[in-house]
C-alpha cells in the first residue's frame, strides 16, 4: 500500500469551511470540499491525528474506492475490484454499517448494503481461497456514500461517532452535539483571552468545548477508535505517539473567563460533572441563573448559546417572553458579541435586533439558524510581547 491515503471527514452541512480549516491547520492537504464532507490526504499518521485532534468532524473514513455505478451489476463488479485483502485479514468481521444515496439511480440502502457485502466476500474468497468466513476477528465497518451516481467507499476508522468525547454522561433535553458546538465556536472570533457566557448552558457543551480549545485538550484523547484494532493497517505505535502528542499539548493553567448558566439546578450539577470528566472544571464557572439575570461588568465578551426553541407546543407560548428577556439582557452588555443557534423562526423579532448574518445549519435533521450579532473589536492593548516558548 502506498504511504499517501485519502481520508473523508464528514461534518455538519454548512460548516465545511470550518472543518477544512481545522484539517489544514493539522498539516494535511485538502483534496476537495463537498456538501457535508471534506476529503484530505496524508499518511497513516493522518488517520490517527485526525481522530484525536479534529473537533468538528463526525468520523474519519479511510477512502478505499470511488467509481461511477448506475446499476447493481456495476456496483458489484467495481466493489469486487477493490483489493479488500489489503485491508481485511481473513478473520475480519466486515459489513456495510451505513449506505446513503442522494440524487442517484441506486437508492435502496439495504440493497446497496447487501450487494457491497456480497462483492467483498467474493473478492475475499478468491484471494484467501476460503468459501466461508468465520468473521471472528476485529471489526472493519464499511460506509458507502453514493452522490449523483458516484460511489465512494470508506472504512470507518473512528467507530463511535467522534462527537462522543466521553465527557457527557448527563444530557439536557435538547443537547447540541459536541462537534456542532465546537464548529459554531470556531465560526465566531472568540479566543481564550475573551469572556464567554452561555446563559442556556444545558449539559455544558458550549462552555466545555470552548474550555477544551483554550486549554488545548484534544477532543479524542480519552477515547478509543475502531482503527486501534487494525494492526494490519495502522501500527499501534502511531496511536501511542498520537496520544502522547495530545498529552504534551494540554495546558490547564491557562486563565479563562468562561461561564455557564441554566435555570435548572439539576442540569447545572450535570454540567459541572461533565466539565470535570472533560478535565476543564477548574476553567468554567457554572451557576443556576435565569437569562434575565445575565450581566457582566466587563466589555467585549461573547455570548454563544443554544436557547430553547419550543419543540413541544406548550413551550412555544413561553418563547416570546424568553427571547425578549434574552434581548434585554443582551442590551445591558457593553460592546459584547452574541451568537445564538435556534430553530425558532421569530428569534430576531423578540430579541429585538437584526442579526448581521445568519447561517442555516442542519442540526441532525432539524433546520436551525445561527444568528450572529458581532460587537465592536476591543482596542489593541500595548504590552510587552513575551517570546514564544
UniProtKB/TrEMBL annotation:
PROSITE patterns: N6_MTASE, THUMP, UPF0020. The keyword Ribosomal protein does not apply. Keywords: Methyltransferase, RNA-binding, Transferase. Residues 46-157 form the THUMP domain. InterPro entries: DNA_methylase_N6_adenine_CS, RlmKL-like_Mtase, RlmKL-like_Mtase_CS, RlmL_1st, SAM-dependent_MTases_sf, THUMP_dom. SMART domains: THUMP. GO terms for molecular function: RNA binding; rRNA (guanine-N2-)-methyltransferase activity; rRNA (guanine-N7-)-methyltransferase activity. It comes from the Bacteria. PANTHER family: RIBOSOMAL RNA LARGE SUBUNIT METHYLTRANSFERASE K/L, RIBOSOMAL RNA LARGE SUBUNIT METHYLTRANSFERASE K_L. This is Class I SAM-dependent RNA methyltransferase.
